[in-house]
Every structure is written in structure tokens, then in C-alpha cells.
Amino acid sequence: MYYEDRPPSAGFIKGTVGFFDGSQLDFREFLVTHPTVHVIKYGYQYRMGDQLVFRYDNANDPAARDLATFPHHKHLPGALVATEQISLQPVLREIVSQLKFP
After folding, report:
1. Cα angle 19, 21, 24; round to 5
2. Which of 16, 57, 69, 97 would bridge 43 by S-S if both were Cys, CB 3.0 to 4.6 A apart?
3. Confidence at residue 100, expressed as pLDDT on a 0 to 100 scale
4. What is the distance between the alpha carbons of residues 47 and 21, in angstroms, rounded to a whole number?
């Protein structure tokens, strides 16, 4: 995990979480830290090797402009769907619900 202060009142965090089946979650968040901490920009990409399983982000993606939740959206293999803003915890819950435990 990596964290960088961005003065005067912001920060950037990124990292990768590995799961027992070899899948990985790459995440990044740009945070405002004053007066309270909240996420301004985010990306959560879940993958198996180089293959996308899903990605949530709020990037200014031209392909997502017509979605009701723009800029918030979810990438799936071959699809782009509307989603509300999401955070790391529900993304982790979604991943755990998809894992096939031995």
C-alpha cells in the first residue's frame, strides 16, 4: 500500500489486495482530509491475472456520459453499467461473495 500527502488537506492512497485464488484488487483513492475525510476520485479494479472481472470508478469516461449515475459507473467485460458512488468496503464484500472457497 502507498499513501502520499497532498498539502494542504488532501491525500492519495493506492494498493493491491491479493486473494487466495490468485485474483487481485487494485485500488486508488484521492482523498480530501479536512474538515473530514472523504473520497473525491476512486478506482477499484478486480482482476484475475490480466483479465478484468469488474472495475468501479468515477473517471470522466466519455462512454459513461449517458449513464444516469455519471461519473460513477462499473466496467464489466463487454459492458458499462450505471452505479452509485461506492467505497472500498462494499467492493471487498462483492469480491468475497464471488470467491469460490475450497
Report:
1. 40
2. 57
3. 86
4. 11
CA gap 28, 88 in Å, rounded: 9
pLDDT score for 74: 99
Mean pLDDT by 10 residues, the chain (102 residues): 88 96 97 91 98 98 96 98 97 96 79
Number of domains in the chain: 1
d(CA 24, CA 48): 6
**Parent domain of 49:** 2-98
Q: Distance (Å, rounded) from C-alpha 44 to C-alpha 90? A: 11
From the list 4, 61, 52, the residue with the least C-alpha distance to 25 is 52
